[in-house]
Amino acid sequence: MSGGGGTLKAPAFTLAEGATHVVMLNSQRRFGFTLAEVLVTLGIIGVVSAMTVPSLIQNYQRQSYVTQLHKFYNELSQALVRYQNDRNAVNLTEAGLSSNAALKTFMNNYFKVVQSCDTASSPCFAASYRRLDGVGMGELNSAESYVIASGAAIRPLYSKDNQKIVNFLVDINGQKGPNIWGRDIFVIGAYNNGLLDSWAEDVVSAPLTKEEREAAPDTWKAFADILNDNWEMTY
User: N or C end of the chain, less CB within 10 A?
Assistant: First the structure.
């Protein structure tokens, strides 16, 4: 509307009937955290980490040990099959695996041996080992031992008991730690039919039943438990 030579502009808005004033809305929003909130959050994260990280590390270590053990198990199993097939035999005894001298030939011909220890287990194996409860086990029995390309230390020993013919003592990572029985060192039995398994009193042949594995003596029990638990280290 015009008047008096000037222009009167229309109001930008109109008050509602009965309104006496305008309230301005606060358009600012709060995006940050207070120091107290940050400290509480960090504290919660720290507690959760302290509870879960050690467990995750332990589970990873267990799985790493089992993976290495399974790798050696497969390598040994395949070597025994080749040994038997190369001699057109129906079992390992018929193939000639019937003495420690034959085991020496087997190791040198079917594995890439990078180190041999003629009579003492060290330096192929660690100087000493412990049980899971921390009790020391002392030195291993003296016998010819080998380190293969994977880094595993192996001590094969001809030890016939029914259809079990060889005890393979294996430290899956050689002299490296933890050097604990049932973590990185195990005993595996080779049976005349070529199967690998644990051992217990009165066992005739492989594969062992779940109950036979549960009856395995201490030095054989770890491998027995891993087989029973489908290649998992649950202890």
Answer: N
Measured CA to CA, the distance from residue 146 to residue 129 in angstroms comes to: 17
Say if 13 falls within a structural domain. Answer: no
pLDDT per position as a tens digit, 69-121: 999 999 999 999 999 999 999 999 999 999 999 999 999 999 999 999 987 78
215 is written with which tokens? 């009856």
Range of the domain at 158: 35-228
DSSP labels for 16-66? PTT----PPP---------HHHHHHHHHHHHHHHHHHHHHHHHHHHHHHHH
Of 127, 117, 176, 118, nearest to 147 by C-alpha is: 117
At 38-69, the pLDDT tens digits run: 777 878 887 777 777 678 888 999 999 999 99
Residue 21 lies in a domain: no
User: Is 39 inside a domain boundary?
Assistant: yes
pTM for the predicted model, two decimal places: 0.78
* CA atoms of 225 and 217, how far apart (whole Å): 11
- The tally of domains found in the chain comes to 1
For CA atoms 209, 67, 177, 167, the dihedral sign is: positive
Phi then psi dihedrals of residue 198, to 5 deg: -85, -165
Please measure the distance between the N-terminal and C-terminal CA atoms of the chain and give it in whole angstroms.
92
